[in-house]
Amino acid sequence: MFIIQIIAFLVLLLWIARKFKIQLTEAFPVGCALLVLTLYMLSFFRLLSFADWIGGMGLAATAIYVGRLKKEKRVVLLGFAKKELLAPGFLTAFVMVLLVTLLVREKAVSWWDDYNFWATDVKSLFYLDGFAQKYANVAAEFGDYPPGTQMIKWWFLHFSPKEFQEGLMFAGYYFMNLTFLFPLLKILKKRNVFKMAAAAAALWLFPAVAEVFWCDGCCADLTMAVVYGAFLTAVIDRQEHQRFFYYGRQALFLMVLVLCKNTGFIWAAFGLLFDYGYHYFVYRRRYTDKKERKADRHGLFAVTLLPVLTELSWLGFCLFNRRVAKLTGTAIQMATGGMHIPEYQEEMVKAFFEAFVKWPLHRWKTIGIDLSPFTLYLLLLLFVFLLYRFQALERKKACYLGGFLALSGIVFYAINLLSHLTIFAVETQYLEPFGMVSSIERYGAPFAIGGLYLIAFLVLNGRRPGAGAALCMVFILLTTDYASAYRALIGYRSRTEEILAEREEIVDEKAQGFLEQIHGGEKGSMGRVLYLRDLSDVSWVRNTYVSFEAAPVSVMYGNIDVAASGSQDVVNAIRDAHAGFLYVDKLNGNGETLFEPFLEEGKFEYGCLYQVKEEAGEMRFMKYERGSREL
């Protein structure tokens, strides 16, 4: 079915391009946003695979429509499709997607945050065909993390529906990031292989100027950055666009942005402020007709309302299903004054400013120019001034863009510093400049890369796009992190065997027995399991790796001291975990007696899966047989 999915997506892009009179490369992010939101809606009903039927029905409807057209109109339509599919920008984008997918096919999960959530959660989506039920979501400590980026990872994983292939997950991640960068390729006018290859290389290297976590993992920060950047350009790119497309595209981008990550609403707010300000300072006096102004107000209202409704849909789902992230709880504690903040704020502030002023954004030295966060901040303002100086921007627009970048940068970096003094105060890795710049780089990607995206768009759409492309190329080649960009596509292979061996070593023999009992890594899920080990055997690293292997089964972990625990402690542990099943490894001492009161008959066995039943406040354990598996 993957062929049908791909062709259906291309048809969607062609329809968008023809309907709204844009190039196919410009249709990519719009089509991707529509795909994300469609899959998001299907996930609530665990009907992700229904996307195959939607794609098939879309192709059938297209075939019927084209077949019923008069010959002259059909020739025109097919001519448009041929022209767009053979355009140098689209060919470059298509080859990039194909090559990236092939090159990362052997990539394995290695980054800690991927094990914690980004890979574990999408593995659950793959096997469940949608969102887990109440108290059944994997990566429980990150339960309210939005699923926007996960949708496209699932779409690629679905190309191999019978086997979870980690390489396809990375391919989907890179595809989503690239789709929001592809509009920059519209500058290509002729099918010159050298120029097309150079443009593809520059596009791949561009994010590594200011953020490199995306090269090893699949976190949402870079995705937020390119979506935010695309939104900023969509606001200023109004010329010759229909009002419906102009505002509709903005709304779609913000809807995806708030679904990328919990902090997406911050960047959506920045985006809306940019939009409001741009309309007030730039557009307001261009339209004297009251109907035009009223239509614009309605458009802005839709751009504001739709992302809010999207955010509320996810928050409502999380509230109903009791999905909450560890950091969300920490933020609530902080807001209510119930959190103890360590007394080394002065060291944290010192590390922040040292990292902000001196350390390279991409964390380590490169063969070119290493930009610190502060240096890039100043460069963004300088670039706006130079665009005005060389008459690429009118004075009013230049003042507004420069002012917005200056103020939004100050506000964001102040928020970033405040978060380290509060929410992240207990994480001592940020007391060192390297750890701090890693945080600034990652969480500041929307500002840094989004700002650069906006500047690149203005330069490439100026009076001399060829010269602008050369300037962008020089900047990227001088400031990017080649090593990380190479590692993302090819260099990762040198560590793949080591990564897989490390994974096998961490998931010990006892954990392997547990995974066999719960049927980890298979279609369907029994829900949530509480996995107990002895108090002397604590390992949160192992637990995280086990959760990845166990998905889509949700696993909660506990450690117990037989000598100091009683039956009520067991009851409390199960209730706190909201677990429907219990699995216990061998405990030190006479641990069987701790669990036998919950059995109706027989002796308690370690390494055995028990189903938990509770009626009238009384808890009972029943041995769970393989044939009785609940889906």
Explain what you see.
A five-stranded mixed sheet has the order 2-1-3-4-5, with helices on both faces. It has about 625 residues and is mainly α. It has 26 helices and five strands. The radius of gyration is 26 Å and the shape is globular. It folds into four domains: about 1-220, no CATH class; about 240-315; about 325-460, no CATH class; about 505-630, Rossmann fold, CATH 3.40.50. The model has no long low-confidence stretch (mean pLDDT about 95). It has helices at about 1-20, 25-45, 50-70, 70-85, 90-105, 110-130, 150-155, 165-180, 195-205, 220-235, 245-260, 265-285, 290-320, 325-335, 345-360, 375-390, 395-420, 435-445, 445-460, 465-480, 480-490, 495-505, 510-520, 540-550, 565-575, 590-595, and strands spanning about 530-535, 555-560, 580-585, 610-615, 620-625.
List the helices and strands and how they pair.
Blueprint lengths: L1 H19 L3 H21 L6 H18 L2 H15 L2 H16 L8 H17 L19 H10 L8 H14 L13 H13 L15 H16 L6 H16 L5 H20 L6 H31 L5 H11 L8 H14 L14 H17 L5 H27 L11 H11 L1 H16 L4 H15 L2 H10 L1 H14 L2 H10 L9 E7 L5 H11 L3 E7 L6 H11 L3 E4 L7 H4 L13 E7 L2 E6 L8
Parallel strand pairs: 1-2, 1-3
Antiparallel strand pairs: 3-4, 4-5
Helix pairs in contact: 1-2, 1-3, 2-7, 2-11, 5-8, 5-9, 6-7, 6-24, 7-8, 8-10, 9-20, 10-11, 10-12, 10-19, 11-13, 12-13, 12-17, 15-18, 16-17, 16-19
Shape: globular
- Could you list the spans in which at least 5 consecutive residues all have pLDDT below 50? none
Instruction: Please state the structural category.
Output: mainly alpha
Number of domains: 4
Task: Report how far the terminal alpha carbons are from each other.
Answer: 25 Å
Question: What's the mean pLDDT score?
Answer: 93
Helix content: 55-70%
> Would you count the extended β strands for me?
5
- What is the radius of gyration computed over CA atoms, rounded to a whole number of angstroms? 26 Å
What share of residues are in beta strands? under 5%
